[in-house]
Automatic annotation (TrEMBL):
PANTHER family: DYSTROTELIN, E3 UBIQUITIN-PROTEIN LIGASE KCMF1. It comes from Dicrurus megarhynchus. It comes from the Eukaryota. This is DYTN protein. SUPFAM superfamilies: EF-hand (SSF47473).
């Protein structure tokens, strides 16, 4: 947890320099509290770095495609010349990401994670898939992750400015 805390402090310190006045001084503290609430409900004092990274990626202001690629990078495993994501790695990713809506009482059950894995690997004979197959599946907006593109779209509309006036 100390490692994640240090990383968050550096991250938000840099963000404050880039966007003065737009980043709360307690952002690192608040973010760490959120990560602990999501990933350390037993109070062990331990949060997996990969889980924290998945949450930060998903909550970032980056594009969906960039987020999806980052998920692949964090959860895929090298296999000779290729990098692949296994069913087990996909299960870990979906379980980690499911903690985000779960914190507000909107998480799905274990069975929806398994259904999503089955759907992603439908028609695949290998034990793992390449990035393109993974990205294609995510672009189809699987139900287990429907909150992610929805949040992205809501966030993107906040930046829209119309030059029209209403009477």
């Amino acid at each position: 947890m100390q490692q994640i805390s240090r990383m968050l402090k550096k991250l938000f310190q840099k963000a404050r320099l880039e966007k003065p006045g737009q980043v709360d001084r307690r952002a690192a503290e608040f973010t760490l509290s959120l990560l602990v609430a999501m990933y350390d409900r037993a109070g062990t004092g331990y949060v997996k770095t990969r889980s924290a990274a998945a949450a930060l990626i998903s909550l970032s202001g980056d594009t969906l495609l960039a987020k999806y690629r980052a998920f692949f990078e964090f959860y895929a495993v090298p296999d000779g010349k290729a990098t692949l994501i296994t069913r087990s790695a996909l299960r870990s990713l979906l379980t980690d990401l499911n903690q985000i809506p779960a914190i507000v009482g909107e998480g799905c059950t274990w069975s929806c994670v398994e259904i999503a894995i089955h759907d992603c690997f439908h028609g695949v004979l290998n034990a793992a898939i390449v990035e393109e197959k993974f990205l294609s599946w995510l672009r189809s907006e699987p139900a287990v992750l429907l909150w992610l593109p929805t949040c992205y779209r809501l966030s993107a509309t906040e930046m829209v400015s119309h030059q029209a006036r209403c009477r």
